[in-house]
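This part of the workshop introduces the protein records we will be handling. An example says more than a description, so a record of this kind follows:
>
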Amino acid sequence: MITATNKNYTVFLRSSLLKTPEGEGENHKARRKGLNMGTIDLFNRDKSLFLMKKLLPWTLCVLLPVSFFYPLPFSPSPNPHLPLPLSTNNTITYPSSLSASASASPPSSAEREKANETRCDYFNGEWVSDSRGPLYNDTTCGTIKEGRNCITHGRTDMEYLKWRWKPVECNLPRFEPQTFLQLIKNKHVAFVGDSMARNQLESLLCMLATASIPKLVYSNKTGKENQFSRWHFPSFNATISLYWSPFLVHGIEKSSTDPNNNLYLDHVDERWARDMDEMDLIVLSFGHWFLIPAVYHEGDSVLGCHYCPGLNHTEIGFYDVLRKALRTTFNSIVDRGTRGRGIDVIVTTFTPHHFEGEWDKAGACPKTKPYRNEEKQLEGMNAEMRKIEIEEVEEAKAKARKRLRLEALDVTRLAFLRPDGHPGPYMNPSPFVNGNARHVQNDCVHWCLPGPIDTWNEILLEMMKNWENQLRSQD
């Protein structure tokens, strides 16, 4: 069951959409006014009230970054196509898995240890106390986004930095920046998706910067955000890119003239897919934008919509749509990425928000410690979004076989257990400088840097190391 939220979220919707940031243009003001009127009208309808009570907590986790972090609508970039990476590597044929040894001799202790590490489930575990702290901080990393820089913005409780993820079956090693850079030497890594993809990329850049400073070689900025960016590590001839694509498939984002996103589920988003032949590893992260009202297209037909009052379309929700979008994406990667070379694909699963109180009060995400395993159960929308992504990854793996490597970075549960890791009021500098805690914006969706999201990239590295070991075993 999905727990209904309280009236505080209604206040958040109306208040946040009415707020006009300083320096905002007239079009943006009109857009906010239009969105607000649509929201007010939403609560005047019985059916709408039912839907919003059921889905409102999750709509919030999208509307918060939409309202405060992204200028909507996103203006089409004059040239969103990134320049080609500085180099590409040679063709590699990837094995699907390690085969069992045919030797009759019992394995050595070292071999058993290595086998156990290979089979380790990094996604089943708990957060344990660790006094060592992160690899970087707000002074050693120059690429932390303003809204994630919790320490610089005045967060004083540092306990959220003193936890490590401990899988049940093994230990998760600390991040090794040199090892990661060696694995992507002469390669192009692309993070594709929404603001969670950007958050994970920012974390990775900070950890890699402890060994090699990345050079920004391309940036296409719209509003406050770099939607398409590229960094280069000269010593390793390695490239890491960011592609803004919140649906992965082709989508037209909502505007002042159309309050709905329009998704075309049978067409991959060419803003990133056109560069696919130049990518060696693709990290996909998406899902939050599917909670926003939208109309869904396939071919020349409209399949239906998600909350579109006033339109003569069938309400079909967003679960099946998310599945279709992921399937179209995988089919495109398999088709394009296997024409003479291989592509590695990682899907970072859906990460929950942790709003508990009013969005404009200090207690919006007040927790200062992780949940224990028995405290909270992964259920409702969190569990369903994760389930769909895992199922589609497994189906795509079966179809692709040896033509590409594809895995899920299943962080939903370990993220679910970290309500203490969000910026909260520290999405803005010194939110309580005047001693007024009554009205502050809160981000309970994204993650502080440094913070729990660094663990996503520690597990990513272990997956890459395991792939490399598989390759060597075939030599």
User: Anything to note?
Assistant: The mean pLDDT is 79. The chain is about 30% helix and 15% strand. The two ends are 50 Å apart (CA to CA). The chain has one domain: 130-473.
